[in-house]
Amino acid sequence: MTAHIGPAGDPRSSAVVGLQWGDEGKGKVVDLLAAEHDAVARFNGGANAGHSVVVGGTRFSLHLIPSGILHPGKPAIVGNGVVVDPERLLEEIDGLAARGVDASGLVVSDRAHVVTPYHKLEDQVREELLSKGSTEQIGTTRRGIGPAYADKAQRSSAIRVGDLLDVALLRERVERSWTFKAEAIADLGARAGVTVEVPPPSAVAARLAELGERLRPRITDTTYLLHGLIAQGKRVLFEGANATLLDVDHGTYPFVTASSCAASGIGPGTGVPERCLRQVVGVMKAYSTRVGRGPMPTELHDERGNRIRERGREYGTTTGRPRRVGWLDLVAVRYSAMVNGATSLALTMLDVLAGMGPIRACVAYRTGGGGGAATDRFVPDGVRLGRVEPVYEELPGFEAEIAGARTIADLPEPAAAFVRRIEEFVGVRVGLVSVGPGREQTIRV
Ligand code: IMP
Prior knowledge:
globular; 11 helices; binds inosinic acid; alpha/beta; four-stranded mixed β-sheet
C-alpha cells in the first residue's frame, strides 16, 4: 500500500517563470535557486524551450531536461504537462553523460504526452502552408509542440509516455494516430508544395518502443513523487519553460506556444496545488526580445537594436535564429507579474544596456492611431497588440560597464534608478539583478 500523503504543511516550494517572450535568463536564475531547493520540476512545454548551460567549460544546450539537473543527485522531474520527444530526451541524457554529468535524478511522468514523428511533420507542413501568403504564420520551432498538445486534447490520436512501455498498446495507439494523421499530413504537404514522407506506423511504434525501453527506469508517477517530497518538507523548484506572453491563454494569441507557461500551469502540469508555493520569481530582461512571429510594440529596427542583439548575444538556443530586440515593455511585464502572482522580480542582462545612451521603457500604449487614447493595460491579443503604439518614458543611461557589480551600491546611479523605476511601475520588488552570465555576476537584493 502507498503511504498516505497528507496535505502539504508550510508552503516551501518556488516557481521561476518568464515574464516576457522567453529567453529572459531563467536558466541562470534556476541554477542559482536550485542550490536552495531539494528537487526541480518542469511543468510545461517541450523541446521548444532552450537554455544554454556551461558544463566543464563547454556550452551545452538543454531543451527538455530541467536546467536544475546540473545540481547532481537532486530529483529532476519532467511533469505530466510537458510534451516529451523521446529521441531528443535521450540525446540530451547521452550528451550529459558524455560530459560526465550525473543525470541519475532525472524522472519523467508516465502521463506526459509523447511528441511523435507525425507531430513534427505536422508542425512543419502547417508552418509551410501558413507561410504561403498568410500573415498568421506562427514561426514555431517546428518541434511538434502544437500538434502534440492538440492531440492531447483530441485524445483519440495521443500517446503518453507510459504507453511506451506496453508494446501491444503502443502499436495500437500509433496505428490509430497514423489513421487520423497520415493522410492529412500528406495532403497539407502537397498543398504547401513540400514532399513529406510519413513513416509507417510499424516503424514508428518499433522505434518508440526501443526508446521507451531505454527510458523505463525513469518513467514514474511524478504526481505522487512530488507530493511525497513536499510532505517530507522538501522544497521543489518549478521551472517554467517558454514564458507568460507565450502562454496559450494569457499570451499574444495566436502567436504563442501551446502550453500554460505561467505559474498557473503548475497545477495541471504537475498535480501540485498552488498553495505549496512560497514564492514566484518572475524573470525579466532589462529590454525585450522575441523569437518567431507576433507583435512586439517596442521592437527596434535600428542600430540600437543591433547593438543590444550583439551585446546580449541574442540568438536562439533552440533554432539559432536572431532574436527580435526592443526596449523594455513595462506594461507587458506588469501584466505578466499580475497573472503569475510574482512575489519578486529577477532582472537580467542589465549589463547589456551600458553605453546605449538614454534608456527607454514603455509605460502605456496608444490605441487607435497617433492621437488616440492611451491605456496602461496590456493587450493580450496578437492582432490588436500589433496595432498599438508604445508611449515611452526616457531614463538616463549609464556608460560604465557593470559586469563587476556585486551590490546595488556598485551600480552607477542611473542603473540603480532604472531598477527602482521597474519596481515602482510593476509593484513588485526586484530580488535579484544579473549583470553577466557567470554565477558570481549576480546582485542579491
Ligand atoms: P512552438 O512552441 O514551437 O509552437 O512555437 C510557438 C512560438 O513560441 C514561436 O514564436 C516560438 O519561437 C516561440 N517559443 C517557443 N518556445 C520558446 C522559448 O522557450 N523561448 C522563446 N520563444 C519560444
